[in-house]
Amino acid sequence: MAEVVALAGWPPEVLAYAYAMYSRSSLSIRESILKITNEKATGFLDTFYFKYGHRSIADNAHIPLAIENASEIVAFELEDEQLWDGQERSTRYQNFNKPNAYFVPELVKNTPYEREYCVIADFLLSKYGDYSSLCFDYLVKKYSKPSEMKDDDYERTLRARAFDVARYWLFNGILTSVGQITSARTLEDQICRLMAAEYLETISVANQMKKACQSKPFCPEGKDEPPVAPTLVKHVGPNGYVIRIRELMKKVMRDDLRNFMYPGAYNSCTRHVRLAHHFRSIQHEIVAGLVYETTNLTLRDIQSFINKMEIGNMNWIINQVLDLREKHDALPRAFAAGYGIQFDICMDIGGRRDLHRHRNCIQIHQRFTVDRGFDIPELVKEMGKSDDFSKNMEHVAFRANQLKDAIGNNADYLIPFAFRAGTLYKMDYRQAEYMTVLRSTPQGHFSYREMAVEMDRQLRGLVPGLEKYSRVTPFQNENMFKR
Predict the structure, then answer these.
(1) How far apart are CA 82 and CA 185, in angstroms?
(2) What's the whole-model pTM score?
(3) Are 396 and 414 in contact (CB under 8 A)?
(4) How far apart are CA 465 and CA 69, in angstroms?
(5) CA–centroid distance for 250 within its chain
């Protein structure tokens, strides 16, 4: 007769060893786990995980970590894993009217540029507060409380709607926290990737994650647990392949692909959802993915010159990428080629944060920039505040760009959520249907709702005959009090 055994209170590395032993013997799980000590687990993992390369063993060790008071840039990087489970602290419930509400890079502190950096950040938070009040007051005047609705529910709902607009003034440097539970294998890949990031804060957080896995954990009172993964992360280091590809593609764009590009290729700054056209070959698709991640070109612009290139040119670029690969390096995401449904989505950073949660699809992200313009919410236009909104967003962009000359990519922390960024989503039909249905519901933010509805419209054109099965909620079904 079958028996189900629940396990609790065992250190992650002991569990990893127990399941590995379980698969290699006839012992029961109880017998397996009782034979194990932390020292035995360490010795086993050293041999089988590191020496013999049995990486699946690390899938059995799940590590809970909390990363607190990190910037939104770090949070985005943390969550950029397909096999990831966790929650980020929602900006909607935070009080930003307090000291130390945003990140100041170490290279900016105690320099002549710190004051300018903080002036811009404080200005953005003041605009966030102003627009929170303005939008709420406007909504109260426009929408009377339904008779069946409680006063607290009415106020909470309208404040949430006001926040949906005010959050466009929040920016990449605001502090947040992320709680995650991942397998040790995913954690190892995650830390290696973060250590290879272009932001020093992200590298610092990665080093702290490694240290946390090797140090005494936070335990319930009366418990004295060992470190959660001292063995599994001890060889973690920067992903050199990521760094080498990044440098290679900068060179390729500068020296080799420049002659193929047409003038004005960088002029597409609109908010858009675009279903990808057919690629001439898998090689063309791979190179397009590599170029997409390196630049802020739209996929349509990239395809316009990539599809004119011969297979020999494509193979030459791909060979250079593969020549940089070492024994244990995974191929980059651009090699996830062959998906029939691909959406190039350029939208506000705030909305991109929401769609980022759909980790079952392949996502290739472009860099933060102010060059692609910003979105103006419809409520801002309705309130007659478009000029104020635009003038101040443009002012912030100008000052952040000026500061970038002095502090480099640290100026990216000052980019408000209103500014646009691109992500290429590759998926199958099932994931596309799930994503569009979930993100079109009335309680969602209007930014990604608009994207989801447009994705569905284009999806129906790609797969005709299934229109009647669409479960996307159209915008005319909007309900102000469902949030």
Answers:
(1) 12
(2) 0.93
(3) yes
(4) 49
(5) 22
